[in-house]
Amino acid sequence: MTPSLSPFPTGPLGGDPLDPGVLAIALVSEHASPLAALGGVDAGGQNVHVACLAGALADRGHRVTVYTRRDAPDLPGRVELREGVEVHHVPAGPAEPLPKDELLPYMGEFGRYLARGWRTRAPDLVHSHYWMSGLAALRAARAHGLPLLHTYHALGTVKRRHQRHADTSPPERIPGEIEIGLGCDRIVATCRDEAAELTRMGIPRHKIGIVPCGVDPDRFTPKGPAAPRGPYPHRLLQLGRLVPRKGAAVAVAALARLPGTELVVVGGPPADRLDDDPEVRRLRGIARDAGVADRVRFTGAVPSEDVPPLLRSADVVVCPADYEPFGIVPLEAMACGVPVVASAVGGQLDTVADPGTGRLVPPRDPEALAGAVAVLLADPAAREACGAAGRRRVLSRYGWGRVAAATEAAYCEVLDAEPAATGAG
Ligand SMILES: CC(=O)N[C@H]1[C@@H](O[C@@H]2[C@H](O)[C@H](OP(=O)(O)O)[C@@H](O)[C@H](O)[C@H]2O)O[C@H](CO)[C@@H](O)[C@@H]1O
Ligand SMILES: O=c1ccn([C@@H]2O[C@H](COP(=O)(O)OP(=O)(O)O)[C@@H](O)[C@H]2O)c(=O)[nH]1
Predict the structure, then answer these.
(1) Which PANTHER family match (predicted)?
(2) Based on the structure, what is the number of domains in the chain?
(3) In 192-282, which ranges are E strands?
(4) Which residues contact 256 (CB under 8 A, 6 or more apart)?
(5) Which of 254, 353, 422, 423 could form a disulfide with 366 if both were Cys (CB 3.0 to 4.6 A apart)?
(6) Which ligand gives the minimal distance to the CA of 129?
(7) Bridge partners (DSSP) listed for residue 236
């Protein structure tokens, strides 16, 4: 490791000064806690990203604090997620779950909490996730002259373009995202499409670096238990938050062109609340109308340890989102050696190699989705080759160790320091 990187007092969390070269890193993730259950409307890839990035940075010897909003009264102020990673529950607004689009009024309080804490124990750098965290962190980091890096995870301009009136983001979002981009020291975008969108928003290209999201290839493996299959010769699987933009309706409509195939939809509310969920009801209606209701199964949200067996049980994983800022699910499928048919949007343009690891098809096009899937279902050898290529692609590019190393390099650029010598995994 290299000489001390910090002009600021270190040891922000444990109290003791840190060894030279060890960074004290503050990750700010206002609505997406690394401790949250996944699959709900607001708990998805960002939660995974923050948890895994924090862990992989700790593996490289750094000390990480994740700041997330306290959304239940009984949450402890601090929780050790693992060695080197602590989660702080920030009091900002009522200590109860709130939709993320209602959190902006509490971001001043969130930022003041950060600034107060950093007065006595400042991190070496701050890395904020999602626009509201960026606003809170911008104020607090500026107050102490701390370097700030930002990852958007999703952009208001893109969401507005695709969802129009259904977009419930506050009007402050797009101007806020520009303010963050102009005010922070560096943007850690996750794919080329996002970098292009940011430059169209007027953010200088030289401030933007690209580091993808990652996957844990030791947890997501081709070998291992597979979930039991239904009575059909073929299984498609879709995984993620159950919101309309994820395109499950496209997958259901495609099923009408794929006889002998079942579709398992993983994610959404807990299994015992599926019947009350508006999106499940909508999708069941579409399935009924298409005459495929008996071949569509909803599991509800599943804990992350149950995800690899489900992925392994599928012949093809479909990711037909209308838009997808990055999309961790294709990486998880590829890591499990399963071919992916994804919409040609966002991060999926970078992650899915067509035809090597799967196929890219136009979004919102059930016919194109069904066509690409049918070719793979008819050819077991092609599926196996795609799966193996997907696994190789993940191992060579997307392990969290590599992602953390590249993120650390961005931190060091901002701090004008040398990266640590630790190998990437
Ligand atoms: C659809 C989408 O934006 N997915 C991204 C993103 O995920 C979530 C997204 O940021 C949600 O916000 P929004 O409604 O404004 O789009 C948040 O509620 C969720 O917490 C995010 O998980 O980030 C993922 C990680 O970078 C990315 O893989 C995914 O494509
Ligand atoms: O019931 C569920 C649904 C989703 N996920 C995980 O949630 C993440 C979704 O991330 P992605 O980036 O694909 O989409 P986002 O939800 O952020 O839009 C992936 O790690 C999934 O494995 C999960 O563990 N259980």
Answers:
(1) SULFOQUINOVOSYL TRANSFERASE SQD2
(2) 2
(3) 208-210, 234-239, 261-266
(4) 290, 291, 292, 366, 370
(5) 254
(6) 1
(7) 263, 316
Backbone dihedral region of 364: left (phi > 0), alpha (psi from -120 to 50 degrees) or beta?
A: left
Q: Are residues 255 and 331 in the same domain?
A: yes
- With a Cβ cut-off of 6 Å, ligand 2 is lined by 38-39, 44-46, 48, 239-241, 266-267, 301-302, 304, 307, 326-329, 332
What span, in angstroms and rounded, lies between the C-alpha atoms of 115 and 246?
A: 37
3-state DSSP assignment of residue 407 = helix
* ipTM rounded to 2 decimals: 0.96
| 54 and 193 together in one domain | yes
Give the tens place of pLDDT for each residue, 141-190. Answer: 999 999 999 999 999 999 999 999 999 999 999 999 999 999 999 999 99
Nearest CA to ligand 2 atom 7: 44
- Domain boundaries, position 115: 12-214+399-422
Say whether 88 sits in a helix, a strand or coil: strand
- H helices within 291-418, ranges in order? 307-312, 329-335, 348-351, 366-377, 380-397, 400-415
Asked if 25 and 62 count as a contact pair (C-beta separation under 8 A), the reply is yes
Q: Decide: pTM greater than 0.90.
A: yes
User: Which ligand 1 atom is at minimum distance from the Cα of 42?
Assistant: 18
